[in-house]
Amino acid sequence: MEKHFVFFTTFTRSWSLSNLNNLCNWTSITCDDGTSTVSQIDLSNSDMSGSISQFNFTPFANLTLFDIKNNTMDGPIPSSIGTLSKLVVLDLSNNSFQGEKPVEVGRLTELRYLSLFNNNLSGTIPPEVSNLQNVRHLDLGFNYFVSSDWSGFLPMPLLSHLSLAYNELELKFRSFILNLHNLTFLDFSLNRLTGPIPEPLFTNLTKLVSLNIAYNAFAGPLSSSISKLSKLVHLQLATNMLNGSIPESIGTLSELETIELFENMFVGEIPSSLGQLRKLKRLDLYSIGLNSTIPSELDSTRNRSITKLQVLFLCNNQLSGSIPSEIGNLKSLSILDLSGNHISGPIPATIWILSNIEALQLFYNNLGGTIPPEIGNMTSLQSFDVNTNSLHGELLDTISSLANLEAFSVFTNKFSGTIQRDFGKNSPLLNYVSLSRNSFFGELPPELCSDFALQNFTVNGNNFTGSLPACLRNSTMLRRVRLDQNRFTDNITNAFGVHPELDYISLSNNQFTGDISPEIPAELGKLTQLRVLDLGDNDLSGNIPLELGNLSLLFNLDFWKNCLTGSIPGIVGNLMRLWSLDLSDNQLTGDIPFELGNLSMLFNLNLRQNHLTGDIPQSMGNLPSLQYLDFLNLSHNNLSGEIPPELCGLYRFSLLDISSNSLSGAIPEDLDSLLLLEKLNVSHNDLSGGIPTSMSKMIYLRSFYFSYNELAGPIPRDGVFRNAPVEAFVRNSGICGDFKELIHCKSTSSRSRDQSSRVLIATIVSFASVFFVGLVVAVVLILGIRRDTSVISTVWERNAAFTFSDVVQATDNFDDKHCIGIGGSGCVYKALLRTGRVVAVKKLNFSESQDIQVTSRMFENEVRMMIKVRYLNIVKLYGFYSSRELLSLCVWILRSVLYGAERGEEALDWPTRLKIVQGLAHAIAYLHHHCSPPIIHRDISLNNVLLDSEFEPKLSDFGVARLLNPNSSNYTSVVGSYGYIAPELALAARITEKCDIYSFGVVTLELMLGKHPVELLSSLSRPLSSNRKQLFPMDVLDQRLPPPIGRMVTDVVFAVTVGLACARATLDSRPPMYFVVQELSAGTQACLDEPLGTITIRMLASLKSITVQNRLASFNLEEKRAN
User: Fold this and answer.
1) Catalytic residues
2) What does pTM read for this prediction?
3) Fewer beta carbons within 10 Å, N or C terminal of the chain?
4) Nearest-5° Cα angle at 324, 322 to 328
């Protein structure tokens, strides 16, 4: 037996081949006293590895227990295990067994306990398992089993414990489960089960003590019959799509200790009947769509009903009103989380007397008032978070008495005053402190980090002064430090010590002093985990330390606005992950090191306002490694030479500023290759020659300055130069243009030649457009309609430049040879009209069972309404024609997004995809908010997004869904494309504009990811387990394209964020389309409050709001503690 296992413990020394005749003396072996044969093998928790696939079970015919749980065994489970006919307990849990579950296990008819929990088993669950008629405990959870054909399963009348959690089960509950009348424990969590929770679950399984079907896709209301589960202690239905109201009858389950309903789609109020649950210890209603106030009935001191409650989660709902003072009667509360709501008013005085509370989370609300001295009564308090409210006043000294405090967060409030000197002194476990964005002043408490446990310390955005606490240098566990935007005057050496875990430090916008070159290099070079180093806007001097070259993970390096001298060390070129380098506003000298061309991830390079000399290195343009560079500012230096033409190869530039130098020569003719350039400044140099006319094609260029040079020749008049200000060209002696401040250009025949050229180009473009912009004629073949008249009805747009006869003739009466594709609603034909226009004809098929009255006034009115819809981003409907067999709808059709992808065409670039998202948003918003009555599309998918020759998106088929179902005037019929239908329609719920918003979110994500986002959305609906890594935006974006850079980075992340918000499972949490359009059309540059490398997809998905400021559209990326 020993040869099949590998042991790493010493207790198995008795196992030896020379001791085979004395198995009963082996450790972990038990023998029957009467027969001296082995009856039990218990090798659980033995640090054992290997396989049992070749294990010979024959000598162990009398074995009743085989337990090898909690080891690292692998390989398949051998079929020979089925020979252990007397086995009562079989436990193989917490190993790495693979393959399918052997059907021979079904022979173990004496088995009462079977656990295969947490292995790598796969395949279906064999029906032979139901032969185990004596089994009481069956646990197959945390494997990879898929759905079985349950029809072959026998009843298992003695089964009381069943777990199939965390498998790959799909479809609905099966009757086999619902007939296990003796079940007390049922766990089907973390699967993919769908449909409503079946009523027999509540009526048949009345002995249930624990019910866990969380993390599935169950939909529909929660039945009031849940009250029949009178013995239920634990109820876990979280992360499904349950809707409707929470039934009041839940309050009759008097044995309940745990209720977890979080992340569903409930609406309405919190049932007051919950206050009757005397044994309730945990109530989790996080993020389920509640939109009422918090009922005071949660506590009834007269009946002392719910006083055992220990955990109360009501966060991330839409609760309003004030916090009821009755919550203070819940004396057993250890966790109270009301964050992420719209709760207002002061924090009730009764809250502060909850001496057992360990975590108080009230952030992201509208709370006002102060924090009273009674906070000192919370002697068990470990985590206190009230960030992002409107609290004011001072923090009183009683906070310093909280001995168990670990986290204290009050950022983004209106607090003022000083922080008590003893704060932190009596809190040895304090590891998280955030006082950011308030109006605190004075010095920081000297004992704040006296126990050196501090990990996150952020006080940015206040008016703190003086020195830093001395203990900060010795806080070896520090990970994140933000002291920026204060008035600290300490020496820079006191900010750095031994911090092996430090990831982020920002000291900018202060008055720190000191010479950084001799005083901090040793400490700085040891910060090997550092990703952000921001020392900008201080009074630092000295040279840039060479030790920076050791910081291989550095993402941001900012020394801007100091008094640094010396040259830029070439060692900076070794920081291969550097995204932003800002050394502006210093006194640096020497050449720009060519090693900067090695920074393959560099996005922002700002060296302005120094004393740099020499040429602009060619390495900054001729190396593909700088392909992501978006922002380059070399202005206000002493650079000379010509503008290297290699810079024109950095086509992702959005800002190029080389003004106020001594550059000479001509402006490169290829500058127009910088297609994404938005700001260009070459003023205050010695440039000569003319302004390249090709620059007029730079459609994103909105700011440019050529003034104070030696330029000559005419100013281009087309494109971006058409409305240019004169200030952009002044003080160039030879330049001319139509400005009174400049000399006028001499008239030549070239002007007429130019005009002729423009006419010719316009003619060519118009002719080419004919082949990109065509016509769709949607033709519905009506079966079962019997009319005597040859023409039933016609509605046609009066300005249409063609007739239906032209369409019929071009398609040879819709001959199959013109069919170019078949979709879900019919066939698409291609035709060429006599005018030269390419025509696509869509023929929509009906079954005989559909009774469509094409002559009805209702149908004609529907078409007339759609003909009136005129919008840039909506395909134009020109009319319909109906006869005995045909109903025709004529609209313009263009290039399909999917059509191009399916044909293997080059993937659309990021600007085009963003343009599609914005245009599609405008189209849906127009239908929802500007049409009377509002129009719900009901079938938004990527297949219905068409593009014109300029890649302007057009939403098509916006009326077809309604026309195909003319009797569905109440908009309750479920239509749409699979994968784009809102989850609430699983129960054929009433269709609202929120359904279109969900579909828009899916399309947006599909455009950004390059594939349907079903896997992403599914992963976000499940909890992040320890063996699943966090996803970052760059992990999920379309890998066929180079990663976005510059402004495009934040624009793409913004689009992903909007897509996630629109594709939320809870319909009330989806933003309206007018808001989406407002955000996407703000016309301002998006910026991230956090470095892109630190933002996860889950952070974006959990955002509560997106705030657009006057100049910058920014995401609020603050997590509970992400300050």
Assistant:
1) 939
2) 0.67
3) N
4) 135
Q: Report the pLDDT averaged over residues 906-925.
A: 86
Going by C-alpha positions, the residue among 18, 20, 16 that lies closest to residue 38 is: 20
DSSP structure class, residue 292: S
Range of the domain at 972: 900-1102
Amino acid at 526: K
- Residue 327, in any domain of the structure: no
The answer to whether position 685 is within a domain reads yes
Which string of DSSP letters, residue by residue, matches 967-1016? T-TTS-S--S-TTTS-GGGGGTPPP-HHHHHHHHHHHHHHHHHSS-THHH
DSSP string covering 676-699:
T--EEE--SSEEEE---GGGGG-T
Which of 712, 737, 762 lies at the terminal end of a domain, its last residue?
737
Taking Cα atoms as reference points, which of 316, 347, 511 lies closest to residue 413?
347
**Residue 529 maps to a domain:** no
Q: Tens digits of per-residue pLDDT, 541-597?
A: 999 998 888 898 898 999 999 999 999 999 998 998 888 899 999 999 999 998 888
How far is C-alpha 707 from the geometric centre of its chain's CA atoms? Answer: 45
User: What is the tally of helices (H) and strands (E) in the chain?
Assistant: 17, 70
pLDDT recorded at residue 265: 87
**Whole-angstrom Cα distance, residue 431 to residue 478?**
9
Residues 657 and 681 sit within 8 Å (Cβ to Cβ) = yes
Report the C-alpha dihedral over residues 914, 917, 918, 919, rounded to 10 degrees: 120
| Burial class of 1057 by CB neighbour count within 10 A (0 to 12, 13 to 18, 19+) | buried
- In the chain, the N- to C-terminal Cα span, in Å, equals 58
- Residue 733 backbone dihedrals phi, psi, to 5 degrees: -65, -30
Instruction: Select from 468, 408, 464 the least CA-distant residue to 433.
Output: 408
Please name the residue ranges forming H helices in 837-909. Answer: 857-867, 897-902
At residue 301, what is the residue type?
T
3-state SS class at 1073: helix
Q: Reduced to 3 states, what is the DSSP secondary structure of residue 1043?
A: coil
Note the Cα 1123 to chain centre separation in Å.
Answer: 19
Residues 6+ apart with CB under 8 A from 1048: 630, 652, 676, 910, 911, 914
112 CB-contact burial (10 Å; exposed 0-12 / middle 13-18 / buried 19+): middle
E strand or H helix that includes residue 244 = strand 241-244
Contacts (Cβ under 8 Å, ≥6 apart) of 785: 852, 854, 884, 885
Element (H, E) at 780: strand 774-781
Given 687, 708, 737, which residue is the final one in a domain?
737
Using an 8 Å Cβ cutoff, are 745 and 721 in contact? no
Cβ proximity of 172 and 149 under 8 Å: no
Instruction: State the Cα–Cα distance between residues 1104 and 498, nearest whole angstrom.
Output: 37
Which has the closest alpha carbon to 219: 236, 191, 241? 241
Cα angle 656, 659, 664 (rounded to 5 degrees) comes to 105
**843 belongs to an annotated ligand binding site:** yes
Contact 237, 213 (CB under 8 A): yes
N residues, the chain: 1123
- Number of domains comprising the chain: 2
- Separation of alpha carbons 348 and 44, rounded Å: 52
Q: What is the pLDDT of residues 706-763, one digit of tens each?
A: 999 999 999 998 888 888 888 999 999 888 887 777 788 875 444 433 433 333 222 2
CATH number of the structural domain spanning residue 653: 3.80.10.10
User: Domain for residue 274, yes or no?
Assistant: no
DSSP element (H, E) containing 1114: strand 1112-1115
Output the domain CATH number for residue 958. Answer: 1.10.510.10
Q: Distance (Å, rounded) from C-alpha 1044 to C-alpha 314?
A: 38
588-592-596-601 Cα dihedral, nearest 10 degrees: 70
Pairwise CA distance, residues 15 & 28, whole Å: 10
Cα dihedral 1082/1085/1086/1089 (nearest 10): -130
* Degrees to nearest 5, angle at CA 9 with 4 and 10: 105
